[in-house]
Amino acid sequence: MDATLADDRPLVSKGWIGSYGVMYLGINIAWSAPSQLLIANQILAWHPEDKEARFAFIMSLGGLLGLVVSPLVGILSDKTRTRFGRRAPWIVIGAVCAAASLVALAFSPNYVLLVIGWAAFQIFIAAAVNASQAIPPDRVSRQQYGVVSGVMGIGWTMALVVGTLLGESLPLVAAYLASAALLLALCVPYLIWHNKASVLPTQDDQVAESSALTAASRGAVMDAELVGGFTHRTETAARSLADYRDFMWVFISRLAATLGNTVALFYLLYYLRDHIKLADPDQGVLILTVIYAVVVIGASILSGRASDAAGVRKPFVFFSCLGLAGACLVMAFAHSFTAVIIAAVVLGASWGTFTAIDQALINQVLPYANTRGRDIGFMSMAVALPNLASPVLAAFALLVLGGYPGLYLISGLLAVIGAISVLAVRGSR
Fold first, then answer.
1. pLDDT digits (tens, 9 = 90+) for 77-133
2. Nearest C-alpha neighbor of 286 from the set 155, 175, 187
3. Transmembrane residues, as ranges (predicted)?
4. What is the CA radius of gyration of the chain?
């Protein structure tokens, strides 16, 4: 997106930001409750003997579908033209159909229908997530990108808490229905009162509708684009891979740290039930999630300010990765819930610091101004791939590497790889 166009936009109101944040919260609550507790409990009731493998399969399938559907919806919504804008129709379709899928999941009588229902849900919730994430670049002034991104981060973290609270405090069917209701209800304020403000013509629309371009000028523009495209391709081919050296090391660091964190959290309910022998593992997940979320938010705010004041990024990323490894080491050998709580505090502080500083480091190592969008899109795969791979790796570690100690040791090793990788970055402090 052209930064000049973004700077020319009027500032969005606090009401706009608030209603958008509420909508983003509702969309994330929808997947949080099922993935944190509900599906795991359903599988536990039906198949206690192989619950880990079945849970890994259904989560992996959902991650794969989300990875495929999200960019597809992005392409389709870019081409959508309605009086409600490009994104709102996909949010409505995604939210309504995802809510219907949650209702179906609530009444699934067996594992096969649970898999089908979860697959449908992941397709539709991916549509809503993608379309909602595309709204800020469409509408928000560049001066407010940070504020809106912060609201999105808070919404995502709070969704983990609310979703876990729903799963722990309500009966299974009621928790699914409440998740579906919140998904729809929290989307309403933005779609009704603030969506009109985001229905802006795109730059392509303005060019297409303009009568100022004559046939000759259009031909000149096409010629310039052909020459420019050829020149750009020639220059790109001549660029050395060395220009992407720091970028790739940051990618490896982010991939390893994210994978370690997602593997560490994947079997949390079963870990508390089978390894820690906690009497109420659902309540344990809720307690840990609340602690984790509060510490993540606090660490993100404090570390971001400290990093800006110090003018350095790498030490924060390095030590946050080591903190992740330390938390995993505690969980590998913990035999009490108190030890797990300590690990949750360390994990939350480390992950909050990592997520706050990692994005700043990414921005500093982008090699070319004219390929930032493409490069950031590639970097996002360092988050998407762990979400897809973590169920398989967690199941493998649990079954082959000696149970939960092996699982958490492999998570810690991944975090250490993330720490070592960031040290290889040369072009940033």
1. 777 777 777 788 899 999 999 999 999 999 999 999 999 999 999 999 988 887 887
2. 175
3. 21-43, 55-76, 88-107, 113-133, 145-167, 173-193, 247-272, 284-304, 316-334, 340-357, 378-401, 407-425
4. 23
Write down the CATH number for the domain with range 241-429: 1.20.1250.20
pLDDT of residue 319: 93
Per-residue DSSP letter, 34: I
Kind and range of the H or E run holding 345: helix 337-365
For residue 146, is it left (φ>0), alpha (ψ between -120 and 50) or beta? alpha
**Nearest in space to 328 (alpha carbons), one of 408, 401, 415:** 408
Residues, the chain: 429
* Sign of the dihedral defined by the CA atoms of residues 171, 175, 178, 180, in that order: negative
How is domain 10-198 classified at the CATH fold level?
Answer: Growth Hormone; Chain: A; (1.20.1250)
C-alpha closest to that of 29 among 188, 175, 194: 175
**In which band, very low, low, confident or very high, does the pLDDT at 160 lie, cut at 50, 70 and 90?**
confident
Query: Is 241-429 in the same CATH topology as 10-198?
Result: yes
Whole-model pTM? 0.66
Which one is predicted more confidently, 53 or 98?
98
Is residue 371 within 8 Å of residue 243, measured between CB atoms?
Answer: no
Cα of 248 vs its chain's centroid, Å: 20
Alpha-helical (H) ranges within 134-214 are: 135-139, 145-169, 172-189, 203-209
61-81 as b/e, with b when 16 or more CB fall inside 10 Å?
bbbebbbebbeebbeebeebe
Terminal C-alpha separation, the chain? 28
Map out the domains of the chain as residue ranges: 10-198, 241-429
Q: Which pair of tokens denotes residue 304?
A: 């971001």
CB 47, CB 111: distance < 8 Å = yes
Phi and psi dihedrals of 178, rounded to 5? -65, -40
Q: How far apart are CA 152 and CA 358, in angstroms?
A: 16
Per-residue confidence (pLDDT) for residue 99, from 0 to 100? 95
Whether residue 137 has pLDDT greater than 80: no
41 pLDDT band (50/70/90 cuts)?
A: confident
Residue among 396, 399, 324 at smallest CA distance from 354: 324
pLDDT-derived band of residue 205, with 50, 70 and 90 as boundaries? very low
Q: What's the CA gap between 7 and 22, in Å, rounded?
A: 25
CB neighbours of residue 203 within 10 Å: 11
